[in-house]
Amino acid sequence: MDILDVHEGVISRLTGLGYAPDVSDPAIGYDVLRAADYIRIATNRSDVPEELERVWIDLAAGYYLADRRAAGHEGAQSTDGSPVKRITEGDVTVEFAGESDGVLTPDARLEKLIDSLTHPPREVFIRYRRLAW
Q1: What is the pTM of this model?
Q2: Where would I find the beta strands (DSSP E) of the chain?
């Protein structure tokens, strides 16, 4: 498995999620290496098994989004509004649905996405784990 293939996979994954990354951004390469380190540590191996390529791509994409969001970069923040719950025309009342209505805010949805990308189930690593003596 080539690091360049994973780099391209991360760009494809981010694009598929609706985020247009700069393909020459060095942070993507850093996050690809960071995700590889996570997998190597979780499996106690010196390589990243080929079967974990999609996990590697998701981890790197999640790290990239989390870093961009934490740094306040444009595009990593959610901008779409909350759904309207109720509109009244007389004396103009507009009420937006919130988390109490079972609707996640855009920021909460983005946070949930980042969490799902950066925290794969530990079971995916069990088959590839090596014991350390």
Answers
A1: 0.78
A2: 84-88, 93-96
